[in-house]
Amino acid sequence: MLEQTTWSPWHGCHKCSPGCANCFVYLMDKRYGRDTSVVVKSKGGFDLPIKKDKNGKFKYPSGTNFKTCFTSDFFIEEADEWREDAWRMIKARPDCTFIIATKRVERIKYHLPDDWGDGYDNVTISVDGETQERADYRMPIFRDTPIKHRYIFVSPILEYVDLTPYLKDDKIEKVCVGGESYSGARICDFSWVEQIFIDAKRNGKPFMFHQTGSKFLKDGKIYNVRFGDQYIQAEKAEQYLCEKYKDVAPHDLKDIIQKQR
C-alpha cells in the first residue's frame, strides 16, 4: 500500500479565489491564535522528505507520496526565497512522488527549477477550477505550462463546472472533485459531481470524488456529513456512479448529459 504523508515546507496563505472563502487552514489557525495571512517557513518540517533516522536511512521510505504544501500554496510569493531548496529536496527523492495543488497557476512557469524541462517524473501539479469562471481563466494557462503530470481539482466545488474543453487535452491525467468542510461550508450538489464524472468518463479521464464536504445535497435532501465520514461517503458515491454508468459507452454519454441538464 502506498504510504502518504503531508509535507508543509511553509505555512500560511492569502485568499485569492471564491474557493478560499471558508479555507480550512484559516479555521484551524484561528483555533490556535495564529495569523494565517503571515507566511512562515516550517521550522522542523522544511526538510521532511530528506530527513534520516539514526541509521542514515530516509525516515520516509521509497514510494511515499508527499501531499505538498496543503496548508499554503507552493507558488505563493512569500515562498520565493525558499522554493529553490524545496525543489532540490524533491529532486533528491526520485523514488517518491509529490503532488502540488495551486490556485496561482500564472506563477508556475516562472518558478520552476532550471532543469525542469517538461517536468519531473515524480511531480504532479494540480490546479483548482472551483467555478466556471476560475476554470476558464486557469485551465488555458495550465495547458500552456510545461508539466509532465497534471490533475484538475474542482475543490471545493461551488457549481457545475464544464471541463470538457480542457479534457480533450491528453496532458490531463485525472479529475478530482470535493466538497467544502467545516464552518460555513457551502453545498456540494451531487448532480454537479455526477455531471463532471460523466464528462471525465466521456473523455477517457480517471475521476476521483475525494470528499462530500459538510453539506451534501442528493436527491433533494441536504445531508450534514461529519468530517470523518466525508471521505467514506464520497467513495461510496463514486462507486455508485461507476456502477450506474459501467455499461454506458463513452459516445452515448452525450445524450445522458443533455437529458439531465
Count of runs of 4 or more consecutive helical residues: 8
* Total strand segments: 12
Oligomer kind? single chain
Helix content: 25-40%
Low-confidence stretches: none
Radius of gyration: 19 Å
Strand/helix succession = EEHEEHEHEHEHEEHEEEHH
State the distance separating the first and last CA atoms.
Answer: 40 Å
Largest sheet: 7 strands, parallel
Average pLDDT figure: 94
Structural class: alpha/beta
Strand order of the largest sheet: 1-4-5-6-7-8-10
In percent terms, what proportion of residues is strand?
Answer: 15-25%
User: Could you say which overall geometry the principal axes of the C-alpha atoms support?
Assistant: globular
How would you concisely characterize the structure shown here?
The protein is of the alpha/beta class and 261 residues long.
Structure, explained:
By secondary structure, this protein is an alpha/beta fold. The chain has helices at residues 24-31, 80-92, 105-108, 132-143, 164-167, 190-202, 227-244, 253-260; strands at 4-7, 10-11, 40-41, 65-68, 97-102, 123-128, 149-154, 172-178, 188-189, 207-211, 215-218, 221-224. The strands form three sheets. It has a seven-stranded parallel beta sheet with strand order 1-4-5-6-7-8-10. A three-stranded mixed beta sheet has the order 9-11-12. It has a two-stranded antiparallel sheet with strand order 2-3. Helix 6 (190-202) packs antiparallel against helix 8. The mean pLDDT is 94.
Outline the fold blueprint.
Blueprint: E1 4-7, E2 10-11, H1 24-31, E3 40-41, E4 65-68, H2 80-92, E5 97-102, H3 105-108, E6 123-128, H4 132-143, E7 149-154, H5 164-167, E8 172-178, E9 188-189, H6 190-202, E10 207-211, E11 215-218, E12 221-224, H7 227-244, H8 253-260
Parallel strand pairs: 1-4, 4-5, 5-6, 6-7, 7-8, 8-10, 9-11
Antiparallel strand pairs: 2-3, 11-12
Helix pairs in contact: 6-8
